[in-house]
From TrEMBL:
This is MFS transporter. It is found in: Cell membrane. The keyword Transcription does not apply. Gene3D superfamilies: MFS general substrate transporter like domains. Its main location: membrane. InterPro entries: MFS_trans_sf (IPR036259), TM_effector (IPR010290). Signal peptide: none annotated. The keyword Calcium does not apply. Keywords: Cell membrane, Membrane, Transmembrane, Transmembrane helix, Transport. GO terms for cellular component: plasma membrane. It comes from Roseicella aquatilis.
Length: 417
């Protein structure tokens, strides 16, 4: 472990190993599931719009539920909330598999079930991530946050490697059942965590859930670093992340490939994210993280243009790896900064806003890109979105010094509630 520097120190703690092992297991199942249902939607409809709608249905519930989920995570046992939400996701995946196997699945039913899973995930995300400061000492929190993202991106590599052969040989059902089993395993590990009681629950209820959710929005908006950084990340996610959410139409229309091509592209994104995440994790410091969060958006926009502009699949794989690397650097840096700067009593609510960004904003981007792709083709709308993202980058660069000063301080400033 020592050879991995900051990352090794974070993983030297028993609870951290249990937590991240469960994360890797569940997220591997998640990526298998995402590929399976997106391919199922494509097979049923042959429409980029409906593939985008499936992604939208999974991710969009965060718009409604993430702020509420953050308030709930700040006032109840976060371990129990995580277990409950993971159990719902496991049951949803089992139901999808059952309906596909029985021939009863339709695109409408699939949308409804994915919305249910997305709602459960909206509650799981802030509860799980709020536990991280209770797993490692504060000095190792940046590495722990990076390790969390690494687990997600290792899963993004492993999941497609499993999904491709499963779908090619057995269809969608085994792939979705794999996800159900992975969440059952992750849920079963949560009671094994020995988390300090102060970190399991944020605070005693101070008012209604709605009032506390609103307080979370006000806190983030007034913070000189958290508010601008989350706004920057949200706009960038709407413009750029839609491509990764509706890969099947790109695979078939631009490159003439099938499930094997989809698995290779998704795995390439995961490989890039993995190596970039390892680099960020082993930095082990906050200094410069704001510049990384902002600059990575520019890199991702440029390589996404390269991805859609080419017809050469090998070059597209390289661009996909670079997309994953830039996205990983941006995501790890942003989440680390937010974790560091947030008041502990507000952590769940602030992280729920990050969850809102990572789930709802890609969903909006996928829906818009899928709809425009049916009318204008996939290349032109994607390139226009990336040019807009470069404009957002310019705004972020102008705000960079002030954001860095507020987010990278050892004792970050706390805005009034």
């Amino acid at each position: 472990m020592a050879s991995f520097g900051a990352l090794g120190r974070a993983l030297s703690h028993r609870d951290a190993r249990l937590f991240f092992g469960a994360s890797l297991t569940s997220w591997t199942g998640l990526w298998v599931h995402r590929i399976a249902v997106s391919w199922l939607a494509w097979e049923m409809t042959r429409s980029a719009f409906w593939v985008g709608m499936v992604a939208f249905s999974d991710l969009a519930p965060a718009v409604i539920f993430s702020p509420i989920a953050g308030a709930v995570a700040d006032r109840m046992d976060r371990v129990r909330l995580t277990m409950l939400s993971q159990a719902v996701i496991a049951c949803e995946a089992a139901l999808v598999a059952l309906m596909v196997a029985s021939g009863e699945m339709s695109i409408g039913v699939l949308l409804a079930l994915e919305a249910l899973s997305g709602t459960a995930a909206s509650f799981s995300q802030p509860a799980r991530q709020s536990l991280m400061p209770g797993l490692v000492p504060r000095a190792e929190l940046p590495a722990a946050v990076a390790c969390n993202s690494l687990c997600f991106n290792v899963a993004r590599f492993i999941g497609p490697a499993i999904a491709g052969p499963l779908i090619a040989t057995g269809g969608v059902v085994p792939a979705v059942l794999f996800n159900s089993a992975s969440y059952v395993i992750a849920c079963a590990t949560m009671p094994l965590l020995r988390v300090d009681p102060d970190q399991r629950r944020g605070h005693a209820p101070e008012g209604s859930v709605w009032a506390e959710a609103a307080a979370g929005f006000r806190y983030a908006g007034r913070h000189p670093g958290i508010g601008p950084l989350l706004a920057f990340a949200a706009i960038a996610a709407v413009l750029m992340r839609g491509v990764q959410e509706i890969l099947p139409p790109f695979v078939e229309r631009l490159f003439g490939r099938g499930p094997d091509g989809l698995a290779l592209l998704t795995a390439s994104i995961g490989v890039g994210a993995l190596f970039a995440g390892l680099w960020v994790a082993n930095r082990g410091r906050l200094e410069g993280a704001t510049a990384l969060a902002v600059g990575a958006v520019g890199v991702q926009a440029l390589v996404t243009i390269g991805f859609v502009a080419t017809g050469a699949f090998p070059f597209a794989l390289l661009c996909a790896a670079a997309m994953g690397a830039a996205g990983s650097v941006h995501g790890i840096s942003t989440q680390t900064l937010v974790q560091n700067a947030a008041d502990p009593a507000m952590r769940g609510r602030v992280l729920s806003l990050w969850g809102l960004i990572t789930r709802a904003c890609p969903a909006l981007g996928a829906l818009a890109l899928g709809g425009l792709g049916e009318v204008l083709g996939l290349r032109l709308p994607t390139i226009l979105a990336m040019l807009l993202a470069l404009g957002v980058l310019a705004w972020g660069v102008r705000r960079l010094p002030r954001m860095a000063g507020a987010l990278e301080a050892r004792e970050a400033p706390v805005a009034a509630r």
